[in-house]
């Protein structure tokens, strides 16, 4: 029997193959520094205004912010990334008021110490290896793991997108591919600057 082939256009997500096509030939720096990278990364305790500013400085929109945060559908985190939310949010032994209280209790039982780097916390409990829209269902219920996840509810545009992606996984998956392409365009070097890496995570 003839096999149906799905043509995946740039930035489109194929549900069956979980694929999207990215642009190639990106010129990157010849130096790779974790310290430099960290300076440019958002923080899990960032609020919405800071997140929007950080993304805008990389030419990424509110939509990119909302949809790329959906990458937290997969993977795990560790206690130091949420410790402040659980016990010391404003340095008064309080917890983050935006976090669902039952979920906060559950997380406090898992994270006994803010320095515990070994306990693994699934971003989406029970489904952290499946790339789907479950993350948005959690965020909408104030059960996003990070303050930065919950922050998406604090702006009308990003909040609208959280609810939209919660209700339409297909829309999320399609938009995700497009925003990954946008992210791949951040700070591309031009002319003879830098190099096109043979393996993207390493300098040649
Ligand atoms: C919006 C701002 C973002 C913040 C503040 C943020 C923060 C974090 C933090 C704190 C962790 C867990 C680190 C740990 O405790 O070990 C994490 C994990 C992760 N992030 Fe983000 N992130 C953001 C956006 C993104 C984006 C744009 C992507 C990709 C498109 C992404 C993909 C991931 C993945 C896949 C993991 C899991 C890693 C693993 O399982 O080892 N995040 N993020």
Secondary structure elements and pairings:
Elements lengths: L26 E2 L5 H7 L7 H9 L5 H7 L7 E3 L4 H5 L13 H10 L9 E3 L11 H7 L6 H4 L5 H12 L1 H15 L11 E2 L8
Antiparallel strand pairs: 1-4, 2-3
Bound molecules: protoporphyrin IX containing FE.
The site of protoporphyrin IX containing FE has 17 residues, from strand 2.
What report would you give on this structure?
The model has no long low-confidence stretch (mean pLDDT 91). The longest helix is centred in the C-terminal third of the chain and has 15 residues, at 169-183. This protein has a domain at 45-78 and 119-196: Peroxidase, domain 2 (Orthogonal Bundle), CATH 1.10.420.10. 37% of the residues lie in helices and 5% in strands. The chain has 204 residues and is mainly α. The chain has helices at residues 34-40, 48-56, 62-68, 83-87, 101-110, 134-140, 147-150, 156-167, 169-183; strands at residues 27-28, 76-78, 120-122, 195-196. It contains nine helices and four strands, in the order βαααβααβααααβ. The strands form two sheets. It has a two-stranded antiparallel sheet. A two-stranded antiparallel sheet has the order 2-3. The protein binds protoporphyrin IX containing FE (HEM). The site of protoporphyrin IX containing FE has 17 residues, from β2.
């Amino acid at each position: 029997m003839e096999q149906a082939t799905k043509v995946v256009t740039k930035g489109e997500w194929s549900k069956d193959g979980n694929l999207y096509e990215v642009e190639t030939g990106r010129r990157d720096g010849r130096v790779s520094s974790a310290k430099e990278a960290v300076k440019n990364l958002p923080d899990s305790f960032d609020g919405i205004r800071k997140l929007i500013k950080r993304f805008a400085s990389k030419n990424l929109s509110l939509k990119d912010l909302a949809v790329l945060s959906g990458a937290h559908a997969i993977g795990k985190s560790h206690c130091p990334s949420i410790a402040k939310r659980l016990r010391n949010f404003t340095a008064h032994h309080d917890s983050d008021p935006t976090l669902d209280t039952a979920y906060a209790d559950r997380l406090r039982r898992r994270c006994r110490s803010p320095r515990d780097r070994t306990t693994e916390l699934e971003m989406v409990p029970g489904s952290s290896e499946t790339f789907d829209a479950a993350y948005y269902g959690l965020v909408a219920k104030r059960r996003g793991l990070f303050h930065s996840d919950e922050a998406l509810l604090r702006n009308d545009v990003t909040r609208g997108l959280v609810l939209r992606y919660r209700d339409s996984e297909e829309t999320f998956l399609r938009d995700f591919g497009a925003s990954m392409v946008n992210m791949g365009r951040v700070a591309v070097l031009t002319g003879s600057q830098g190099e096109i890496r043979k393996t993207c995570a390493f300098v040649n």
